[in-house]
Design a protein that fits this description.
There is one protein chain. This protein is of the alpha+beta class. Helix content is 54%, strand content 23%. The chain has eight helices and eight strands; from the N terminus they run αβββββββααααβααα. Strand 6 and strand 7 form a beta hairpin. Helix 3 packs across helix 5, helix 6 crosses helix 7 and helix 7 crosses helix 8.
């Protein structure tokens, strides 16, 4: 009972672990929860370590292979290994300084071997190298490296300005190329559309003329059969005269047409059928559009 009255109790948080000493030497690790210590027997709680993940931000300035000064921003996440908490408690007085020193050493060993572009492209490889080195070293001290992030790579301000100017020039050059290609495609499409329109217009004119020819032939045959004693030439002359007067009528009704081809000459040198044929041939050859 007397010994029980000399016990000292303490509570250790869930995300922590206690280090218990007896007569100044490490005795045991105290797990989270209510713990009892015997001060009379020289047992004390020497310290408590958090087992939560801690974060350390490190900024390293170094030079690349192509002589560009850069600032590397790293974020290291680490925690105490519960089973080796005594090593973490006794071996390192300031773990953050130790981690930072190793990060400096690894980064400055890798970055000078790479050009600036390679630093941006291979930042994950650099982070992996830092992680492997820290795991090997800090593991002996009771610390686990959970994750390492290369948060940012910041070149010298003059280099950043030069890079921005190069990127802007490249983008302008690329935009000019795209614009030229677009104009080229547009011109080709316009030419193709124009050719297609002319082709379709020619097909339409040909079909129109074919329809006129077929209609004239049918009219001549019907008229010749119904009116005895008429020749094909007489019927054709009659149709042409009718067409002539219809054309004159249409031209008079249209305000947009201002040119009319009419045969002229002194006297009546030909019959009206020949004059109409000549006039139609002249109009067909002229093909002058009027708006």
């Amino acid at each position: 009972m007397g010994n029980a009255n000399c016990l000292f109790c303490g509570c250790i948080d869930q995300a922590s672990i206690g280090v218990v000493e007896k007569w100044g030497r490490f005795q045991r690790l105290a797990q989270p929860g209510l713990q009892f210590f015997n001060p009379i027997g020289g047992e004390i709680l020497a310290g408590i370590l958090s087992t939560r993940i801690s974060s350390l931000d490190v900024k390293i300035e170094t030079k690349t292979k192509d002589n560009v000064f850069v600032q590397i921003h790293c974020s290291i996440q680490y925690r105490v290994i519960k089973e080796n908490a005594d090593d973490a408690f006794y071996e390192l007085q300031n773990p953050k300084d130790q981690i930072q020193a190793y990060v400096f050493d690894v980064v400055r060993a890798h970055i000078p071997k790479m050009n600036l572009d390679e630093v941006f492209e291979q930042k994950n490889e650099v982070a992996q190298a830092v992680s492997e080195e820290l795991e090997k070293v800090m593991g002996a001290y009771g610390y686990s490296i959970e994750h390492i992030l290369m948060v940012d790579i910041v070149p010298d301000p003059s280099v950043r300005r030069a890079m921005n100017e190069i990127n802007a020039a490249q983008r302008l050059q690329l935009a000019s190329v795209y614009k030229g290609e677009a104009e080229k495609i547009l011109q080709v499409k316009r030419a193709e559309a124009d050719a297609e329109a002319k082709y379709l217009g020619g097909v339409g004119v040909a079909r129109q003329r074919q329809a006129i020819t077929d209609g004239l032939r049918e009219n001549i045959l019907n008229f010749s059969h119904k009116v005895e004693g008429t020749s094909a030439k007489e019927v054709m002359d009659l149709i042409m005269i009718t067409q002539y007067f219809d054309t004159i009528k249409d031209l008079g009704n249209s305000s947009k047409n201002t040119t009319v081809f009419i045969p002229h000459g002194p006297g009546h040198v030909r019959d009206i059928g020949d004059q109409i044929r000549n006039g139609l041939m002249e109009a067909s050859s002229a093909q002058i559009p009027h708006e």
